[in-house]
Amino acid sequence: MTKCFSVTCLEVIATMRDLRKKHQLVEAAGDTYGKTLTLLSLDVCSDDSVRKCIDSVKDHHIDILINNAGVGLLGPVESISMDEMKRVFETNFFGTVRMIKEVMPDMKRRQSGHIIVMSSVMGLQGVVFNDVYTASKFAIEGFCESMAVQLLKFNVKLSLIEPGPVHTEFETKMMEEVAKMEYPGADADTVRYFKDVYIQSSIDIFEALGQTPEDIAKCTKKVIESSRPRFRNLTNSLYTPIVAMKYADETGGLSVHTFYNLLFNFGSLMHITMSILKCLTCSCLRRRTISPD
To answer: N or C: which terminal CB in the chain sees fewer CB atoms within 10 Å?
Structure first.
């Protein structure tokens, strides 16, 4: 994300919790580091850290805020502690709220600004065994949908970026780890469904539909550069029918039973379908580039 924006004429302030780990980012930024790219320390889970970071910006003047911090959580909910659940919400929901609260007053005063929030397709459609992560994204979608109305009165734009599967080292490592873990508190059948059914289906979907971080950064850049940016921005057009299916049935039964059948009754068929889709679809179809204009 930072690399994508640092090569433009924009002055970029990138943040990270531990500046001792900045080497890879600095290397990717190249000559822009120290010129159009500045690096600051920030922990979105800390009120004090957020305040200090924004205070270090002259006049608190931020034209575009990109909320990109996030953590994942996967597995049977019976085996997940309440502290782990709170940690997800602390970053994914309250972290974003902290940042918006800190920059919003100046944007409203200037009657100018654009807030970008990295959400997920899971903020629109629940996904089995992603219960807590999905809940955190649903929360941020509701918060932003409410805020967008007020901010519009002050000429401040708010946009949600909603990726589906994204290929990252984090996702790959997490899939490998969860497959080996024990899940105390969850019954044997649930653990078997999670490991033998869900994880395999998830891997198939990632391989067939997954985008790269660069794809998401390019989509985000197009939203920022748009004269009339959308509020919601699905980055992968193949997920549009899934979202449409949910809103086509006000009872919610259609999407619930469809996903149930795909996972538990037609798992083999879905595996074959994803394999065919991976072979047939070229990258230009699997990676949607948003056209905001």
So the answer is: C
- CA atoms within 13 Å, Cβ hemisphere of 144: 31
How remote is the C-alpha of 166 from its chain's centroid?
9
pLDDT over 70 percentage in the chain: 88
Please name each of the domains of the chain with its CATH number: 70-286 (3.40.50.720)
Q: Please tell me the distance from the alpha carbon of residue 212 to that of residue 168, in angstroms, as a whole number.
A: 7
Q: How far apart are CA 121 and CA 247, in angstroms?
A: 14
Task: Give strand pairing partners of 160.
Answer: 117, 232
Q: How many residues does the chain have?
A: 293
Residue type, position 133, single letter: Y
Task: Centre a 10 Å sphere on the Cβ of residue 142 and count the other Cβ atoms it contains.
Answer: 12
Model pLDDT for residues 151-175, shown as the tens digit of each residue? 999 999 999 999 998 887 777 777 7
Q: In whole angstroms, what is the distance from residue 13 CA to residue 25 CA?
A: 12
Q: E strands of the chain, at which residues?
A: 12-16, 37-41, 64-67, 114-118, 157-162, 232-234
